[in-house]
Amino acid sequence: MNRMFSSRLFWPVVMLLVLFTINLVAFPGFFSLEVKNGHLFGSLVDIARNGAPTLIIAVGMTLVIATRGIDLSVGAVCAIAGAVACSIILGSPEPGSIGTVAVAVIAALLIALVLGLWNGFLVAVLGIQPIIATLILMTAGRGAAMLITEGQILTVNSPPFKVIGSGFVLGIPVSVVIAAVIFAAAALLTRRTALGLLIESVGINPEASRQAGVRSRGLLITVYTFSAFAAAIAGLILTSNQTAADANNTGLFIELDAILAVVIGGTSLAGGRYSLLGTLVGALVIQTLVTTVYTVGIPPIATMVFKAAVVTAVCLLQSPTTNATFGRWRRSLGRGRPGTRTAERASVS
Amino acid sequence: MNAQAPVVEMTNISISFPGVKALDGVNFRMFPGEVHSLLGENGAGKSTLIKALTGVYAIDSGPADSGEILLAGNRVSFAGPAQAQNAGISTVYQEVNLLGNLSVAENIMLGREPRRFGGIDWRATRRRAVELLRGLHLDIDPGSLLGSHSLAVQQLVAIARAIDVNAKVLILDEPTSSLDADEVAELFRVIRELKAEGVAILFVSHFLDQVYEISDRLTVLRNGKLVGEYRTAEILRLDLVQKMIGKELAILDALERRIVEPGGGEDDEVPLLAATALGRKGSIAPVDLRVYTGEVVGLAGLLGSGRTELARILSGIDRPDSGELVIDGTPHRFRTPRSALARGVAYSSENRRAEGIVEDLTVRDNIVLALQADRGWFHPISRKRRDELAVSYIQALNIRPANPDAIVRNLSGGNQQKVLLARWLAVAPRLLILDEPTRGIDVGAKAEIQKLVVNLAENGMSVLFISAELEEVLRLSSRIAIMRDRRLVADIVNDDLTVDSLLAIIADGELTAVER
Ligand SMILES: Nc1ncnc2c1ncn2[C@@H]1O[C@H](COP(=O)(O)OP(=O)(O)OP(=O)(O)O)[C@@H](O)[C@H]1O
Ligand SMILES: [Mg+2]
């Protein structure tokens, strides 16, 4: 019981269950899944599919945040990736061929890698604060995307490209599969190697890590590059889903959703220990929230306020102060076992 | 003195953390105008008792934590250290909790700056800060950034801050752990003044000399339990140590002063490390230094003499701007700590909190960190090997709790220091630069660590040993390099040196380097 309460995943999971319940009450068919034409359909599938881009970006963001950084440029990178891919497809004589789409996707990803390297360079080599460093690309990036699309909304009609955002494999939406692959890859790559340990170490104490011989520059560059790469994949999914690249609106505000997902998942913005599983739950919470707004019939203009309220609630529940208070209540109710002092404590001023 | 009522009376204090009973029914009291020392091994519960008194840990919140605190006869229960401060309990915690990116003056006066016209009166703030620093005979620019000063100076600034408050009770948790004899003397002078004014002072230190010199009364804790309260004048040092560790400390006597041959006996021996005119502007004047294989070289000097600065240059943390460094006969430009480590030179920082441990990671991860960093992220050390390493160092250094999964932040100060040492021992460097390695470590463990250093040197590791504790330097080193005013002034073979003769050289610094 205590282990459950003190787990960082506890409150995000509770929040997700509460949102599910609200949806279930408003819409009894919420949990039902059906197979139509060999494809899986249902509200949960919609949540997973619509949440995939946010999750993909949030996975990259988790690693960036673990190093004490932040990447504000992911939305702009989404737009650039979409713009590059669409302009290549449109410029090709055969927009519907798999070859064209492959070239477009690879070009978009390569450009994202360059952008990620740029962010990493600013942060790791020039030592610019991450929020400023990535703000540069956040603002300049959309301008660049505009240049690529020449100010137009590029609508593409390419069946292979459409598959990325709206296709299915084995009945499961392709975007969900992509998100799962990225999530698993990030988890394996960081936890099966020492990457995770070194990232956390740099995030907790950069100077101690440097003295211990950790190559923090390389780590930071890797992490920002991965974040941009993930953002480009998300951008391709979004663009494919809309069958159009819109430099102004693709991935708009998605950095905020991604950061929220990370924070809800229990990774501290102060850097250090991170939880990809938490981020997964966080991304689901955010997407379910959006769905809830529709099922419950909250007017869309109130969406942002509603989102803010839920996020505030989760953050409050996770704060050490609230936890301590809760602990006190639980103990004064006499249910607490001896030795349940929470490990995190108010720090000495 | 004894007729007075205690100003602080703590009864039956118990505090638990998950899996650890840090305090178990402890009683403790303090009298006005008395210095009361709190003693015990690393992890005995000293800092926890202090935090229970100052409201960092609540004692009335549940069945596991209990007790009663009377301050001047009134029952108190502080919700946090700020409240304790307001009630007249001024505290310097073990880990200096100041802000490195603010100025010295701001740190001293933070939260109680003199005000004028609704704003902060900066001139008065500065003036007051200067007065307080002068009270400790600390001559530094109050406008300089705190983070730019050595740990010892930071410790003194923390003390100056605590003294400023009009306190009935002053708590000093290991205030002298990185101070030299001179600063300790200054601090004791101030303590005596406060004592004469009727302030009750709680003093924690692992230096028994200091404890005997300054305190009137002692309380000994062992494994979170009270062993007893004694008058300093009535307890022999031997008995005291025995009460602290629960058995007789045979090892201390066993560690006779090491009779060693200084390295470089044969003329053709190539030194492991040879620095020629190595210097850095504004940091240290050009230095010539040689360290031979299997040699322990002590580095001695006063506060601010440049010992740490030299160590940082040798280990690639700061870059030299003149001179050259030759390792094993090949010139080497240390660009980063990483490149130094690759050549087998490791540095264990004096500032374990800012530059040493990674607080939120486990003991295991902290121990393997440097080893893992060296192998690169793609070659993780197997789980089995990590466990073996962690368990063996936990045993060798007696780290408590003996749990590789414990988060280092939750360890007592001395145990954190042991974890840091373990990290450097695990990489098996050829030259280990130890900057105050026994800082905050208890008597028993200190002897163990000294023995370990000697053993390692016998097995071919060279050690550059920096310590404010001259006995320790004398006991371990075959040769002692002395620094003064940021230059190396002497390099002497340790054959018939005593603490006093060493002190004299440190103070005069006129002796020229001994020709070898
Ligand atoms: N926040 C915490 N969480 C878990 N355990 C803790 C925490 N703080 C202290 N402990 C444990 O409580 C015990 C007492 O620690 P404390 O810091 O009081 O020791 P100490 O006597 O001050 O030692 P030292 O001489 O090393 O400073 C130790 O076993 C420590 O691991
Ligand atoms: Mg302590």
From TrEMBL, chain A:
InterPro entries: ABC_transp_permease (IPR001851)
Cell compartment(s), UniProt: Cell membrane
UniProtKB keywords: Cell membrane, Membrane, Transmembrane, Transmembrane helix
Membrane topology note: Multi-pass membrane protein
Transmembrane region(s): 9-31, 51-67, 74-92, 98-118, 125-148, 168-189, 219-238, 250-269, 276-298, 304-326
Span of the signal peptide: none
Region named Disordered: 330-349
Source organism superkingdom: Bacteria
Keyword Cell cycle set for record: no
Predominant cellular place of this UniProt entry's protein: membrane
Name recorded for this polypeptide: ABC transporter permease
Organism field: Cryobacterium glucosi
The organism's taxonomic lineage, starting at the top: Bacteria, Bacillati, Actinomycetota, Actinomycetes, Micrococcales
Automatic annotation (TrEMBL), chain B:
Transport listed as a keyword: yes
Domain (ABC transporter): residue spans on this chain: 8-248, 265-510
PROSITE patterns listed in its UniProt record: ABC_TRANSPORTER_1, ABC_TRANSPORTER_2
Keyword Amino-acid biosynthesis: no
SUPFAM superfamilies: P-loop containing nucleoside triphosphate hydrolases
Keyword tags: ATP-binding, Nucleotide-binding, Repeat, Transport
Pfam families in the cross-refs: ABC_tran (PF00005)
The protein, known as: Sugar ABC transporter ATP-binding protein
